[in-house]
Fold each of these.
Amino acid sequence: MGKLTGKTAVVTGSTSGIGLAYARAMAKEGANIVLNGMGKPEDIEKERVGIETDFKVKAVHSPADMTKPAEIAAMVALGESTFGSVDVLVNNAGIQFVSPIEEFPIEKWDAIIAINLSSAFHSIRAAVPGMKKRGWGRIINTASAHSLVASPFKSAYVSAKHGIAGLTKTVALELATFKITCNCISPGYVWTPLVEKQIPDTMKARNMTKEQVINDVLLDAQPTKEFVTVEQVAALALFLCGDDASQITGANLSIDGGWTAE
Ligand code: NAD
């Protein structure tokens, strides 16, 4: 028996990177999984089937677009109708855009606030009634070191991540007596497609080479001079799902190689 056997986890943005690692770690502990995110249908299907065969659980994919409140509610409803409950909700979908503020495209601001912040409000709103009814729940939001400190050229991302840290604390207080915890995890730089994709724009914004961006911008922020791994982030989320973490709520847990200690 895994520690999540019989439970269901919805993980937004789980077709890639950190989200996929959360989904696989929770499936390994016996949870049925609602995958969510974009990508080629054949790639998503491969990950879905991989989870089912590797961990002997069930997995479905919700194509919900995290900019669309009705689709987010439908994703939670899909978990409840397919598996009977949504016990663990991981808000993780996120995008990045790097630009000086005066050139920052308005539609990129709107998209980042919608996907990185508002989607968590909509999914929590939809999942909490079932969690309250069953008297147990775990809500985990992927924030970022950028929920605690800022970097230039990331106005929308830093705003959304500071916002999700506040949402986490508020929800934790509201649910404190219902055996539902709400925490956020704040990674430093994790080597995923999201980080890889922002390198060209940072090269442009700061007039740097790729190596300079990796060593002087990304790893410069991290005293350990190493990237965090997706498996390390997933292991922390798994800990938050267990009984040992029942008194951890409203916390913002850094996993950032010392970045925010500076
Ligand atoms: P990623 O690009 O590998 O994955 C992002 C996921 O979000 C993908 O599954 C993608 O399909 C999904 N997504 C994007 N837009 C969506 C939309 N409109 N609707 C539904 N799904 C959507 O990125 P990642 O690095 O794994 O990032 C995951 C989370 O971790 C993000 O919230 C990010 O801000 C946060 N984070 C990442 C790092 C890092 O260094 N990689 C550091 C701190 C925080």
Amino acid sequence: MTIDVKDKKVLVRVDFNVPLNDDLQITDDTRIKRALPTINKLLADGGAVILMSHLGRPQKKLNEDGSINVKKFTLRNIAPHLSTLLNRPVQFTDDCIGSDAEAKSAALQAGEVLLLENTRFHAGESKGDRALAEGLSKLADVYVNDAFGTAHRAHASTAVVADFFSAEQKSFGLLMESEIENADKVLKTPQRPLVAITGGAKVSDKLLLLERLIDFADTVIIGGGMAYTFFKAQGGEIGNSICEDDKLDLALDLMKQAKEKNTKLLLPTDNIAADAFSPDANTQEVDSMSIPAGWEGLDIGPKSIEAFSAAVAEAKTIIWNGPMGVFEFDKFAVGTNAIANAVAAATKNGAFSLIGGGDSVAAIKKNGLDSEVSFVSTGGGAMLEYLEGKELPGIKAIRS
Ligand code: AMP
């Protein structure tokens, strides 16, 4: 972020889409905290900072009369905490564009902060509306995008707005820069062996990722719900385990691709099966290829934990996206927790580890290991798409 912002108005797209409880209190302020270095640097460099973000999906949760539920989705809910974290007052405007936003931006002095109302109060935000983007661009001299979490969206405030600034007037923020730099460490210059750990519910959601990883990783570990499609495809009995019957051929094809590319594909060999999808179901250890009728696999078993951990211990570069089981239930979080610890241990031994994706990040945090891995991404969907090799609209808009 080398852009000169002295005495300039800087419009910064941040990701303040934080979870709130029923009393509208912030329950996890990680996203705000991760934006602070950029905001503080811009302020220290003499800029006047205008912050914009979305919060939730107000257009999908309208009031009965079709109006916006302002009370629930206003960014005013965020302002006091932001002010505390920045240790300075935060001004606010009830609409992200228009006369009030323009007047407050025009009056904003170096070192001052203005927070705009939720960009998604305008239906045009998610549609990439040019008029909305132009309205936002009028507020500032410089545009900085630090919202990696929404970089995969071609929205008015994340991408289109950048069209109204010249190449010299726009920049990534520090968080965006480090997200890109750390993902590129894995994608472009990995120390080998590179071990990719994948998990989560469905093969279909991770198809592109798996194809790409098989192409460039040395070992791809497949855990979680998607493994059962692979067991069934190979003729295994999987009981009631989650499975995509229309993806059986595809699973075999991925296995073939791995063989052709000499990539080690590691699937679980044993699982923890449950007699119900419930936190206190009865359980038994089962062979992955013979899960009894009426039972469903909800976690990887001890032999798989050992094999996966051993592969992770050998790695010089690790990427992890997706849990090994239904980690939301403590009983079935054992595999995911073990992987979290294996990744942290490998990092201690010198490996570079990138945790990308909401659930893996949650698992790392739950185990108190966020500072023991190399980089925890703030972008679930965005990181997934970046790793798949897609050009993210939020990144392209700054570079073009
Ligand atoms: P994803 O969003 O695709 O990363 O999937 C995460 C979800 O996959 C989590 O909510 C897990 O509970 C779920 N999941 C992981 N393993 C299993 C499994 N064996 N059976 C059903 N769901 C699973």
